[in-house]
């Protein structure tokens, strides 16, 4: 058996039944060890006993996020390279690193063999500490995160997330928001929603931060101000097609640290986990994990590239 690679499998992932045979066959052919993730975290004992060089996670973004959180808590994150074999429903982080939609053999080979790239994580403080890999959405994003149906994704594609928000417009609460950045500058808004991201996508492919890259050392902040329904729908189209700078409907910032204060408290979706808070701090943790990314990934900056944090409302 090739002990340098272990495949951590989520048997509850939406793609498990569809991909199980392929996964077991591919692992057997290469001598990779299959380890099932379990609620009691017994999988940790297996990788402690015979630690592999690379852990490849089969599942969705939520599965990867939970594994990363657990490894970080156990002070084991720096020991491993990571790979992601997408098996979830949204696969938003997988889209940023170029792993979504690949043929099975390409996805498996990339996750297990491609050299790993240092990738950022997002630290969150709101009375307790959190760690996420992709994005925090708030306001309508926090409210509708679980309401984008598979049928809507089939019908509307990447616009399904935004259209779901528009259909809830009459019941969407408005929030008074203040952002404070690392240089002590402030920005105030009346908003429907907010996203703070390292990856580009949420809600099954909606580009909430179209210029974000997962290894630039920056948070991408997207603010959705209060606006009429026609403008909100147009803003979704602008963002999907990369026209949001021209339209001026959406405010965007980049920063290494930002504090969000809101009235009333904002509902958040933190990599799919829901919370509510009136004050949250977000900070980027650069190059915190090493992940195999596809060579043509749109959300990964070229190796060695560096970008200085800016704010561009």
From TrEMBL:
Determine the domain of life of the protein's source.
Answer: Bacteria
SUPFAM superfamilies reported in the protein's UniProt record: NAD kinase/diacylglycerol kinase-like
User: What Gene Ontology biological process does one annotation of this record name?
Assistant: phospholipid biosynthetic process
Please tell me one Gene Ontology term that the record gives under cellular component. plasma membrane
Q: What Enzyme Commission number does this protein have?
A: 2.7.1.-
Q: Which residues form a coiled coil?
A: none
Q: Which InterPro entries match?
A: ATP-NAD_kinase_N (IPR017438), Diacylglycerol/lipid_kinase (IPR005218), Diacylglycerol_kinase_cat_dom (IPR001206), Lipid_Phosphate_FormReg (IPR050187), NAD/diacylglycerol_kinase_sf (IPR016064), YegS/DAGK_C (IPR045540)
The prosthetic group or cofactor this protein requires is: Mg(2+)
Asked if the Swiss-Prot or TrEMBL record annotates the protein with the keyword Cytoplasm, the reply is no
GO MF entry, a single one:
kinase activity
- Sorted UniProt keywords: ATP-binding, Kinase, Lipid biosynthesis, Lipid metabolism, Magnesium, Metal-binding, Nucleotide-binding, Phospholipid biosynthesis, Phospholipid metabolism, Transferase
- Show where the DAGKc domain sits: 1-128
Keyword Cytoplasm assigned: no
Q: What is this protein called?
A: Lipid kinase
Q: Which organism is it from?
A: Rhodopirellula europaea 6C
């Amino acid at each position: 058996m090739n002990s340098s690679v272990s495949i951590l499998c989520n048997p509850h992932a939406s793609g498990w039944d569809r991909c199980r045979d392929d996964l077991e066959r591919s692992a057997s052919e290469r001598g990779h060890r299959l380890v099932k993730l379990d609620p009691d975290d017994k999988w940790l004992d297996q990788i402690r006993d015979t630690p592999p060089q690379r852990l490849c996670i089969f599942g969705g973004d939520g599965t990867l996020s939970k594994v990363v959180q657990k490894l970080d808590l156990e002070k084991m994150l720096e020991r491993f390279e990571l790979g992601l074999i997408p098996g979830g429903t949204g696969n938003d982080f997988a889209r940023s690193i170029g792993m979504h939609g690949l043929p099975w053999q390409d996805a498996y080979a990339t996750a297990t063999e491609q050299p790993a790239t240092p990738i950022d994580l997002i630290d969150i403080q709101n009375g307790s500490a959190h760690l996420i890999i992709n994005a925090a959405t708030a306001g309508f994003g926090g409210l509708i995160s679980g309401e984008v149906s598979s049928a809507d994704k089939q019908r509307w594609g990447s616009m399904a997330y935004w259209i779901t928000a528009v259909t809830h417009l009459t019941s969407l609460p408005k929030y008074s928001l203040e952002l404070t950045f690392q240089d002590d500058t402030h920005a105030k808004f009346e908003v429907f929603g907010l996203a703070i991201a390292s990856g580009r996508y949420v809600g099954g492919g909606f580009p909430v931060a179209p210029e974000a890259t997962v290894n630039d050392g920056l948070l991408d902040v997207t603010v959705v101000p209060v606006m009429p329904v026609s403008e909100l729908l147009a803003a979704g189209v602008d963002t999907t097609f990369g026209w949001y700078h021209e339209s001026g409907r959406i405010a965007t910032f980049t920063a290494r640290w930002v504090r969000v204060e809101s009235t009333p408290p904002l509902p958040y979706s933190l990599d799919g986990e829901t919370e509510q808070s009136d004050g949250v701090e977000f900070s980027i943790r650069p190059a915190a994990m090493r992940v195999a990314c596809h060579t043509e990934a749109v959300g990964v900056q070229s190796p060695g590239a560096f970008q200085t944090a800016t704010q561009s409302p």
